[in-house]
Amino acid sequence: MSSAATRATGPDHLWSVDEHLEDILTTVRPLEPIELNLLDAQGCVLVEDVTVPVSLPPFDNSSMDGYAVRVADVAGASEEFPAVLDVVGDVAAGQADLLNVGPGQAARIMTGAPLPPGAETVVPVEWTDGGLGEGPVTGMRARSLAPEGAEGHVHVYRSAQARAHVRATGSDVKAGDRALEAGTVLGPPQIGLLAAIGRGTVRVRPRPRVVVLSTGSELVQPDEQLGSGQIYDSNSFALTAAARDAGAIAYRVGAVADDAETLRSTIEDQLVRADLMVTTGGVSVGAYDVVKEALSHVGDEDEEGGGVEFRKLAMQPGKPQGFGSIGPDHTPLLALPGNPVSSYVSFELFVRPAIRALMGLDDVHRPTTRATLTAGNALTSPKGRRQFLRGAYADGAVTPVGGAGSHLVAALAHADALIVVPEDVESVEPGTEVEVVLLG
Q1: How many CB atoms lie within 10 A of CB 229?
Q2: What is the C-alpha to C-alpha distance for residues 294 and 307, in angstroms, rounded to an integer?
Q3: What burial letters (b/e) apply to 14-33, b meaning 16+ CB within 10 Å?
Q4: Residue 86 exposure: Cα atoms within 13 Å on the Cβ side
Q5: What is the per-residue pLDDT for 412?
Q6: Minimal CA–CA distance to 310: which of 15, 2, 3, 17?
Q7: Alpha-carbon distance 325 to 26, whole Å?
Q8: Closest by alpha carbon to 20, among 3, 32, 33, 35?
Q9: Collapsed DSSP state (helix, strand, coil) of residue 295
Q10: What is the 3-state secondary structure (H, E, C) of 130-183?
Q11: Residue 296 — very low, low, confident or very high, per pLDDT cuts 50/70/90?
Q12: Is 277 helix (H, G, I), strand (E, B) or coil?
């Protein structure tokens, strides 16, 4: 790994949040485009405009179940003086051979069926006797139950304007129109549109594959029995879920014990399925901070740019961070702190933007807004640190949730925003307008 920000700093440099993020986004490059089947492309980003090859709908069709008729034949029709027309047959959706509707005639037509030659409008079945001669009906009888409904006569009780209840050719999109533009994230409606215009595959940037790995000999998997001094591994679950929420295909690796060689080996094994590696824990200054020990001198040292750099950031929570690249493909790796709140805040600030950058999105950040602080007391913040406090946001106001401790998982679960206190601010009084990062 090599960047202007890295080269310009020394080992004792206290990085700002913006410097660290800039270094990450300068280094991480969008994944190469590939051609995918539609359902495999869900959640991916288009890399080229998609043009409509055929108009949608491709033909005039009925938006109602009813009768295709000529306008003149139903002019002035009423319940007292209905228009009586000869029924020449059925027109069903998907029908290729269409009937011709002449003067004084009607064709029973189904929703989505092509408007037959000669017909100018569609009369809903509710405006007719359905060919049964018993007054207005509420719907058509199934052809299998009443085949005689497709012939004989129909009484029409209301007039209709030209092309009423007709979906015109190209009324949705026309041939040559741009259906979707490059940069669009493909969700269900977009995939539906692509299928509707006949596209079976599409060229996209694939969803990044993110491997999440937590470290710590004290970590136990949920559903297992806790021993003395042990805690459940929550970070890897939270971060894997967060990676998926950001648009990635995320793989969770079980917690790795505090052994540098085991960690190094595990990371090397996982590289085959990673576009981005994320570790949590072991990046501080303790004697058992094995991520730092294992990765400080790992990478392709013989190749320019390899290795992981560990840094101190002017932020709270999340002061210790690591960033670099490892393996033959220079896979980006972000090493996050182990405290649950620190790791999650770090993910939102640094990992989520990296994932979105890999996807090829222009806007990689969570939305921000300004909100009025509602709190019982003033918020305090350490001088020279940008603080991120959990908050609940509603109707232009934000309320702190829990304290400033980086271990408060329960408070994090009830927060939907981060309150940002700038580096040069040490106290924020209630009623003050603050910057808020919206988390969902």
Answers
A1: 7
A2: 11
A3: ebbbebbbebbbebbeebeb
A4: 8
A5: 84
A6: 15
A7: 13
A8: 3
A9: helix
A10: CCCCCCCCCCCCCCCCCHHHHCEEEEECCCCCCCCCEECCCCCECCCCEEECCC
A11: low
A12: strand
Decide: 135 and 178 in contact? Cβ < 8 Å.
no
237 against 4, higher pLDDT: 237
One-letter amino acid identity for 162? A
Q: How far apart are CA 87 and CA 152, in angstroms?
A: 5
Phi-psi region of 266 (alpha: psi -120 to 50; beta: other; left: phi over 0): alpha
Residues 6+ apart with CB under 8 A from 145: none
**pLDDT single digits (tens) 86-107:** 999 999 988 878 899 999 999 9
The single residue listed with the structure tokens 């129909």 is 154
pLDDT in tens, 162-187: 999 999 999 999 999 999 999 999 99
Six-digit token string for 284? 């501080």
Question: Count of alpha carbons within 13 Å of 116, Cβ hemisphere only?
Answer: 26
**CA dist., res. 26 & res. 33, Å (int):** 19
- Cβ atoms 240, 175 nearer than 8 A: no
User: Which bin fits 377, alpha (ψ -120 to 50), beta or left (φ > 0)?
Assistant: beta
Q: Give the gyration radius of the chain's Cα atoms.
A: 32
Instruction: Give the amino acid at 165.
Output: H
* Burial bucket for residue 222 (CB in 10 Å: 0-12, 13-18, 19+): exposed
Question: What's the angle, vertex CA 55, arms to CA 53 and CA 58, rounded to 5?
Answer: 120
Type of residue at 2 = S
Are 373 and 419 a contacting pair, CB within 8 Å? yes
> What number is the average pLDDT over the span 387-406?
86
Find the farthest-apart pair of alpha carbons in the chain and give their distance in angstroms, rounded: 96
Q: Give the containing element (helix H, strand E) for 359.
A: helix 352-359
